[in-house]
Amino acid sequence: MLRRSLLALSRSSRVKDLVSTMPVSSGIVARYVPGETTESAVEATRRLTEDGLLVTLDYLGEDTLDRAQAEHTVQAYVDALKALGANGLSHSAEVSVKLSAVGQALPDDGEKIALDNARTICQAARNAGTTVTLDMEDHTTTDSTLEVLRNLRQDFPETGAVVQAYLHRTEADCRELAYEGSRVRLCKGAYKEPESVAFQDKHDVGKSYVRCLKVLMAGRGYPMVASHDPTMIDIAGALAARHNRQRGSYEFQMLFGIRPDEQRRLAREGEKMRVYVPYGNEWYGYLMRRLAERPSNVTFFLHSLVSKS
Ligand SMILES: Cc1cc2nc3c(=O)[nH]c(=O)nc-3n(C[C@H](O)[C@H](O)[C@H](O)COP(=O)(O)OP(=O)(O)OC[C@H]3O[C@@H](n4cnc5c(N)ncnc54)[C@H](O)[C@@H]3O)c2cc1C
After folding, report:
1. pLDDT score at 137
2. 55: three-class secondary structure by DSSP
3. What span, in angstroms and rounded, lies between the C-alpha atoms of 46 and 161?
4. CB of 255 closer than 6 angstroms to any ligand 1 atom
5. pLDDT tens-digit readout, 39-91
6. Annotated catalytic sites, by residue?
7. I need a surface site. Which of 28, 163, 173, 269 has the fewest CB within 10 A?
8. What is the per-residue DSSP string for 79-103?
9. Would you say 225 and 252 are in contact if contact means Cβ atoms under 8 Å apart?
10. Does residue 189 contact residue 198 with C-beta atoms inside 8 Å?
11. What angle do CA 237, 45, 55 make, to 5 degrees?
12. Which residue, by CA, sits nearest to atom 19 of ligand 1?
C-alpha cells in the first residue's frame, strides 16, 4: 500500500516542488545520490573504482516534455563521457540513459528524437572507449524502448538493454535478447504497474526473475544481474556455474548506497560488480522509487524534511 502511494507521489509535481528544495547533501538524498555535478559523479566513480568496482553513471531526469531540456541532458552525458575519458576512468565506467529524459515523451516524433539523441550519446561513449545502457521505464514505453534499442544496435551493438522481471512479457523478451554480444540488465522493476501487465506479489516477481535469469545465463549474451536480493545473487552465481560461465562473462549490478559491503565482497571474490551512480539535481523521481522499495526509510526521509524547515 505504502509502496503504491510513494510510487504515485513520484509523479506528483506539487510534492516534487516541495521535496526538491531539499539540498542534495541532506541525509536521505545523499545516501542515494552522491552529487549534482559532473565533477561529483567523476569523484564518486574514482572512489568506487579504487575499491575494484565498476560504475554506470545516470544523469538524473525523466519524462521531459521540453526539447531544450532533452538537449541539455544529451550535453550532460557528452560532458560526463569526456570527463571519464580525461580522468582515465572510461575502462571501468559507462552510462545509463533514460529515453524519456532525451525526448521519448515529446509529442509526434518523440521516439525519433530520442533515437537521434541516444545515438549522439552512444557515439560519445564510443569515442571515450565505453558503452551505454538504455534504462527501462514504465510499461507504456517498453515496446518503444526496445525498438530504439534495435535501431541503435545496428550501429552500436554494444548498447545494453534492460528488462524488468515484474512484467509478464519479460521471459519472452529475454529469449529474444539472449544472443551473442547482447548485454542485458535484468532488474525486478521499479514502477507502479497494473495487474494486467505485471506480477503484483513479490514472490511471483522473484519467481519470474529466476525464470529470466535461467534464460539469460543459458543464452549467448552478457547477463547483468541487477539486484540487491541475496537469493537472486546466489541463484545467479549457481546458474553461471551450471552453464560453465567464466567470471567476467556476466556481471552483478547494484545501486549507489545500497548494500555497499556486499558490493565490495563480490568484487573481492573476483566477480564483476557495477554500481549504478545517479547524479544531477532531478533526483526526486529516483528518490521516491528508492523509498518505495524500502518503506522503513520513509521515517528518516520525513525527519529530513521537517528538520530542514
Ligand atoms: C543497477 C540497477 C539498475 C536498475 N535499473 C532499473 C531500470 O532501468 N528500470 C527499473 O524499473 N528498475 C531498475 N532498477 C531497480 C530495480 O528494478 C528494483 O526496483 C530494485 O533493484 C530493488 O529490487 P531488488 O532486486 O534489489 O530486490 P528487493 O527485494 O527490492 O530488495 C532486496 C534487498 O535489497 C535491499 N534494498 C533494496 N532496495 C533498497 C533501498 N531502496 N534502500 C535500502 N535497501 C534496499 C534490502 O536489503 C532488500 O531486502 C535497477 C536496479 C539496479 C540495481
Report:
1. 97
2. strand
3. 25
4. yes
5. 999 999 999 999 999 999 999 988 899 999 999 999 999 999 999 999 999 99
6. 135, 185
7. 269
8. HHHHHHHHTT-TTTEEEEE-GGGGT
9. yes
10. yes
11. 30
12. 190
What is the Cα–Cα distance from 36 to 1, expressed in whole angstroms? 31
Q: How far is the CA of 229 from the centre of ligand 1 (A)?
A: 8
- Hunting for cell 568496482 — which residue is that? 53
Q: Which residues of 122-154 are buried (b: 16+ CB within 10 A; e: fewer)?
A: bebbbebebbbbbbbbbbebbebbbebbebbbe
**191 Cβ inside 6 Å of ligand 1:** yes
The finding on whether 187 has its CB within 6 A of some atom of ligand 1 is: yes
Residue type, 243: H
How many residues belong to the chain?
309
Does 192 sit in the ligand 1 pocket, CB within 6 Å? Answer: no
User: Where does the chain show beta strands of DSSP type E?
Assistant: 54-59, 93-97, 132-134, 161-164, 183-187, 222-226, 251-255, 273-279
